[in-house]
Design goal:
The complex is a heterotrimer.
Chain A (H helix, E strand, L loop, with lengths): L10 H9 L2 H10 L1 E3 L8 H20 L9 H10 L4 H29 L7 H23 L4 H12 L8 H9 L6 H30 L18 E3 H26 L29 H9 L3 H13 L4 H4 L11 H21 L5 H28 L10 H4 L5 H10 L11
Antiparallel strand pairs in A: 1-2
Chain B lengths: L1 H30 L22 H15 L23 H9 L2 E4 L8 E4 L13 H7 L18 H10 L15 E2 L7 E2 L20 H16 L3 H31 L2 H24 L6
Antiparallel strand pairs in B: 1-2, 3-4
Helix pairs in contact in B: 2-6, 5-6
Chain C lengths: L6 H28 L5 H5 L3 E4 L8 E6 L2 E7 L2 H9 L11 H4 L5 E5 L10 E2 L7 E3 L4 E3 L5 E3 L11 E5 L2 E4 L1
Antiparallel strand pairs in C: 1-10, 2-3, 3-4, 5-6, 6-7, 7-8, 9-10
The chains are: A mainly alpha, B mainly alpha, C alpha+beta.
Chain lengths: 428, 294, 170
C-alpha cells in the first residue's frame, strides 16, 4: 500500500486544490500507510484526540455558565449541576474526561516506552508529545482550581508555592502568579483565562505531533521499519479508522461508567466544601494523575530539591531518545529492557500510591526508593543496556510474525540464510 | 501461536491490572484514615438502577425542616426543586404552600428599602443565618456546614451521615471533652460540636411511619443525598440508555471492522503468493545444487 | 482491491452501523444545544407581582419581567375613549382596545418595539401613545402601531389582577 499522489477528478477540485491543497491533505490522511501489525495499544492516539475534543467542547459549554469569581464560582458550579439543561452531564463528562484523558495518555506514553517509539527517526514526535503532556498537566491543575472548593484552593496554594523554592526571586514569582499575597480572586481569574487558552495550544501541538508522525510513519510492535510501498502497510482509512473506532467505543464504556454511575469517584469529597483560606484539609492530595510527581516532590528532604527533582522527572524524558542507545526499538526483542520496563511501570504506580499517603515512615522510604529507581532507570540503566544488552534476532520483515503460517517463513529464512551473500531481498 | 496468544493475554492482563490499580489508587487515597467502618444501609438510590424512595424523601424534608433547618442551610436548593421530577415530588400546590411558609427578603422596593414577602417556588431555601460568621457566632464558634452537597463532601457519603447521626455515645472513661463538645464514634477525631440531633419520636410522621431514631436518620440522609445530587435518577436512567446503545453500536462496529479488514484478504493472498514464489525459488535452487543444504 | 465478498450483507451491516452511529451522534449533540436554552432557574422566575396602588391616572410605571420592560399605564378617561374610538380599518394590525385591556383603566404591555426591540418613549409621537426613537414607530394610547416600520402592536403579556392593587404578570 504505497501512498499515491492525489489526482483531482474534476476541474473544480483541481482549481481548489492548486490554491489550497485541502483535498490533497484529506487524501493523504485517508491513504496514509500504517503498518498492518499495529496492535490495540496503538489506538490510544485516536482515543486521545477524542478526549481532547470532548474536553474542549464540554469546556466551552461550561464556560458559558461558570462565573470566575471567588464569591460565585462554587455556586455557579452548583447552578450548572442543578439548573442548566444537561449541566450535570456536561460537568461530569468534563471532570471525568480529564481523568480519562490522563489514563489514555499514560497508556500512550508507556506504549511508546515499551515499543521504543521515541527512537530515531521519531524523536520529534516524542518531544512534542512531552510538551503536550506538560501542558495537559498545567491545564488540568488550573481546571481543578475553578470549582473553588477546598482542594481547589489548597491545591493551588501548594503547587504555586513550589515556585517560592526558587532562590532569590521565589517570592516575587509567587506573588506574580497570584496577583496578590495569597491565592485569591485574581488568581482564580487568571487560571480561568489560561485554562481556556491552553487546550488550544495543546490542539496546535497535537497537529504538530501528527505531522511529525506522518513523516517517518508509525512505529510498530516489531519495531523494524516497514517497507512503505509493500503490502506491509494498509491505508489509514478505512482500516485504522474502523479499528480506532472500535477501541474508542470500548473506551467509552469505561468513561461513561464513571460519568453515569460513579461520577465523583475520581474526585475528592473535600472539593465539595467551599474554599476556606482559614482551614486546611487534613490531607491535600492532587488528582490521581499527578500523584507520582507529588510523591517525588515529597521524597526529597529539601524544598528546592524536591521541586527540582519533580521537574527533572519529566524533563529526563526529553533526553530519552539519546539516553536509550539501543538500536533495537521494540522491547519484544530486548529481554532485559523488557523486565526493567515492567519494573518502571510498577515503580510509577507505586509512586502514585505513595503520593496519596502521608510522607512518613515506610511510605517515605518507599517513595525515596521509587524516586531513586525512576532516575536510575533512565539515566543509568538505559545507557548501559544499550551497550551491553544482547538482543534477540530481529525478523526480516513485519510480515514474518504476522503471517498466518507461523514457522513457514522462518524455515524459508533459515534456508535463505544458507545462501548468505545471495539475493535475500527476493524473500521479502 | 498458542504461546504468542498466551503472551498477549498475559500482557493484556497486566495492563488491565495496571489500569485498575491506578483507578483503585485514588480510591485508596481517599478512604485512608477511616478509623471505624460506617454503618451500612441498603439505600434505594445505590447501584446502577438506584432511585429515591419518594415517601422517605418527603419525610426527610420534614425532618430537615423541623430538626436541622434551625442551624443548617441548604442554600443551593430551591423550593421548586421539591416538586421536580426525581425528587420528593410534592405536588406543585404543596411545594407552593411550603414556600409560602417562609419569609423571603426581597427588594429594594420603590423607596429603596428591603422588604419581606412570602416565599415563592423560584426562591432558594431560606437560610437560618444571614452569613457564615453569624452562623458561627450563634453556634459557639463552629459553623454548621451548609448541607446542599454535604453527602458528596464527606468520605462515605450517605453511610457517613447516617452513621454520624447514629454514632453518639458516652465518651469512653477518661476521655476529656470540653463543654459543648460531644463524643461521636464516626466523627473524624470523635469530637463534635453538634448535640445529638435525632432521637426516637423527635418528629411526627403523618403517613404513620414509625419514628425510631434509625428511621428518622435514614429519611433525612436520603433527603440530603437527593439535595446534593438532584439529578441522580435522570443520570442513572440516561446511563442505562447510553450503555444499551453503546453495546449495540460496539457490536455493529466490531462486525463492520471485521468485514472491512477481511478486504485485506486479497492482500494476504498476495503475500502468500510471494511466499510461494520464494519457496519455488528455493526449491529451484535446491534442485540445482542440493549440496548447499544440510 | 477486489470486492469479492457478498455485497448485500456487507451493505446491510454498514448501513446499520452508519445509521445507528448517526442516531447516537445526534442524541449526543442535543444536550450540547439544549444547555443554551433557558435553564430551570430562569424558567421558574416567569411570574412577577406588581403593586399598582400608588399609580395616579395618566401615569405609567415600567417594571422588569423576564429581563424585559413592562409598561403598566393607568389611563385617563380621555385616553380610553380615544383608544376605543379608532376605526379598526385604519389600523395596520387591527385589534380592539377592549381586547387589549381587560380592565380599560389599566394597560399592561411589553415595552419592546415590535420592529427591532428598542424601548419606546411614553407620551410621545403623533398618536399621544408611545414613540420608538430608533426607527420612528408611532403607537396610540392602546399601544397599537399607527405609523412607522413596526409590523405589529405592542405585545400584551399574560397577566391577571390578583386583587384591586396587585397585577401578576406571567
Amino acid at each position: 500500500m504505497s501512498e499515491e499522489k492525489y489526482v483531482p477528478k474534476t476541474k473544480l477540485a483541481e482549481w481548489f486544490d492548486s490554491r489550497l491543497p485541502l483535498l490533497s491533505l484529506s487524501h493523504h490522511l485517508k491513504s496514509y500507510p500504517t503498518p498492518k501489525n499495529l496492535n490495540y495499544w496503538w489506538t490510544f492516539g485516536g482515543i486521545l484526540t477524542f478526549c481532547l475534543i470532548t474536553q474542549i467542547v464540554t469546556g466551552i459549554i461550561l464556560a458559558m455558565h461558570y462565573v470566575a469569581h471567588t464569591e460565585h464560582a462554587f455556586a455557579s458550579i452548583e447552578h450548572i449541576m442543578r439548573d442548566v439543561n444537561y449541566g450535570w452531564l456536561m460537568r461530569y463528562v468534563h471532570s471525568n474526561g480529564a481523568s480519562m484523558f490522563f489514563l489514555a495518555v499514560y497508556i500512550h506514553i508507556f506504549r511508546g516506552l515499551y515499543f521504543g517509539s521515541y527512537k530515531a527517526p521519531r524523536e520529534m514526535i516524542w518531544i512534542i508529545g512531552l510538551a503536550i503532556y506538560l501542558l495537559m498537566m498545567a491545564t488540568a491543575f488550573m481546571g481543578y482550581v475553578l470549582p473553588w472548593g477546598q482542594m481547589s484552593f489548597w491545591g493551588a496554594t501548594v503547587i504555586t508555592n513550589l515556585f517560592s523554592a526558587i532562590p532569590l526571586i521565589g517570592e516575587s514569582v509567587t506573588n506574580w502568579l497570584w496577583g496578590g499575597f495569597s491565592v485569591d480572586n485574581p488568581t482564580l481569574n487568571r487560571f480561568y483565562s489560561l485554562h481556556y487558552l491552553l487546550p488550544f495550544l495543546i490542539f496546535g501541538l497535537v497537529i504538530l505531533h501528527i505531522w511529525s508522525l506522518h513523516i517517518p510513519g508509525n512505529n510498530n510492535p516489531v519495531g523494524i521499519d516497514v517497507k512503505k510501498g509493500s503490502n506491509e502497510t494498509m491505508p489509514f482509512h478505512p482500516y485504522m479508522v474502523m479499528k480506532d473506532l472500535l477501541a474508542l467505543l470500548a473506551f467509552l464504556l469505561l468513561f461513561f461508567a464513571f460519568v453515569f454511575f460513579m461520577p465523583d469517584f475520581l474526585g475528592h469529597p473535600d472539593n465539595y466544601i467551599p474554599a476556606d483560606p482559614l482551614i486546611t484539609p487534613a490531607h491535600i492530595v492532587p488528582e490521581w494523575y499527578l500523584l507520582p510527581f507529588y510523591a517525588i516532590l515529597r521524597a526529597i528532604p529539601s524544598k528546592l530539591g524536591g521541586v527540582i527533582f519533580m521537574f527533572a522527572s519529566i524533563f529526563v524524558l526529553v533526553g530519552l531518545p539519546w539516553l536509550d542507545s539501543s538500536k533495537v526499538r521494540s522491547a519484544t526483542f530486548r529481554p532485559i529492557y523488557r523486565k526493567f520496563f515492567w519494573v518502571l511501570v510498577v515503580t510509577v504506580i507505586l509512586l502514585g500510591y505513595l503520593g496519596a499517603k502521608p510522607p512518613e515512615g515506610i511510605y517515605l522510604i518507599l517513595a525515596r526508593i521509587g524516586t531513586a529507581y525512576y532516575f536510575i532507570h533512565f539515566l543509568i540503566l538505559l545507557p548501559l543496556l544499550g551497550r551491553y544488552e544482547k538482543t534477540e534476532p530481529l525478523p526480516l520483515s513485519i510480515s514474518d510474525p504476522v503471517l498466518d503460517k507461523p514457522g513457514a517463513m522462518d524455515k524459508l529464512k533459515e534456508m535463505a540464510g544458507k545462501y548468505e551473500g545471495e539475493n535475500v531481498a527476493t524473500f521479502k | 501461536m498458542k504461546e504468542k496468544m498466551l503472551q498477549h493475554l498475559n500482557n493484556l492482563f497486566s495492563k488491565v491490572f495496571l489500569i485498575i490499580f491506578i483507578i483503585g489508587n485514588s480510591n485508596l487515597a481517599h478512604s485512608e484514615e477511616r478509623n471505624t467502618e460506617f454503618l451500612k444501609n441498603n439505600w434505594s438510590f445505590d447501584g446502577v438502577f438506584g432511585t429515591f424512595d419518594r415517601a422517605s424523601l418527603q419525610r426527610g424534608y420534614q425532618v430537615y425542616q423541623e430538626v436541622c433547618a434551625g442551624c443548617h442551610s441548604v442554600q443551593h436548593l430551591s423550593y421548586r426543586n421539591l416538586s421536580e421530577k426525581g425528587g420528593p415530588e410534592f405536588l406543585p400546590e404543596e411545594a407552593k404552600a411550603i414556600a409560602a411558609q417562609f419569609e423571603v427578603i426581597d427588594g429594594p422596593n420603590e423607596d429603596g428599602e428591603m422588604f419581606t414577602r412570602p416565599g415563592r417556588l423560584s426562591d432558594k431555601f431560606v437560610m437560618p443565618f444571614p452569613n457564615v460568621k453569624a452562623a458561627a457566632a450563634a453556634n459557639g464558634g463552629a459553623y454548621p456546614p451548609d448541607m446542599s452537597v454535604l453527602a458528596k463532601a464527606r468520605k462515605g457519603g450517605a453511610d457517613y451521615i447516617y452513621s454520624l447521626l447514629m454514632g453518639y455515645e458516652e465518651a469512653p472513661a477518661g476521655y476529656e471533652l470540653d463543654d459543648g463538645v460531644y463524643y461521636n464514634k464516626y466523627m473524624p477525631g470523635n469530637k463534635i460540636k453538634m448535640a445529638e440531633p435525632i432521637s426516637d419520636g423527635i418528629v411526627e410522621y403523618s403517613d404513620g411511619t414509625e419514628t425510631t431514631k434509625a428511621q428518622i436518620s435514614r429519611d433525612v440522609t436520603t433527603f440530603l443525598v437527593w439535595a446534593g445530587d438532584p439529578h441522580l435518577e435522570a443520570r442513572h436512567k440516561m446511563g442505562f440508555k447510553v450503555f444499551f446503545y453503546l453495546i449495540i453500536l460496539l457490536t455493529l462496529v466490531y462486525f463492520s471492522k471485521q468485514k472491512v479488514w477481511s478486504r485485506f484478504g486479497s492482500k494476504r493472498e498476495e503475500e502468500e503468493e510471494a511466499f510461494d514464489k520464494a519457496e519455488k525459488a528455493v526449491t529451484k535452487y535446491e534442485g540445482e545444487d542440493p549440496k548447499t543444504f544440510k | 482491491m477486489t470486492n469479492k465478498v457478498e455485497p448485500k450483507r456487507r451493505n446491510f451491516l454498514f448501513t446499520a452501523t452508519y445509521t445507528i452511529g448517526a442516531v447516537g451522534l445526534g442524541a449526543a449533540v442535543w444536550p450540547l444545544v439544549d444547555q443554551m436554552n433557558p435553564d430551570a432557574s430562569v424558567k421558574a422566575l416567569s411570574t412577577t407581582e406588581v403593586d399598582v396602588s400608588s399609580i395616579e391616572p395618566g401615569k405609567e410605571i415600567t417594571v422588569l419581567w423576564r429581563g424585559k420592560p413592562i409598561f403598566i399605564k393607568r389611563r385617563t378617561e380621555k385616553e380610553i375613549s380615544e383608544a376605543a374610538k379608532v376605526n379598526l380599518k385604519d389600523l395596520k394590525d387591527p385589534e380592539k382596545d377592549s381586547d387589549r385591556a381587560k380592565n380599560p383603566e389599566w394597560l399592561v404591555m411589553i415595552g419592546v418595539c415590535t420592529h427591532l426591540g428598542c424601548v419606546p418613549l411614553k407620551n410621545k409621537g403623533e398618536y399621544k401613545g408611545w414613540f420608538c426613537p430608533c426607527h420612528g414607530s408611532h403607537y396610540d394610547t392602546s399601544g397599537r402601531i399607527r405609523k412607522g416600520p413596526a409590523p405589529t402592536n405592542l405585545e400584551i403579556p399574560k397577566y391577571e389582577f390578583v386583587d384591586m392593587n396587585t397585577i401578576k404578570i406571567g
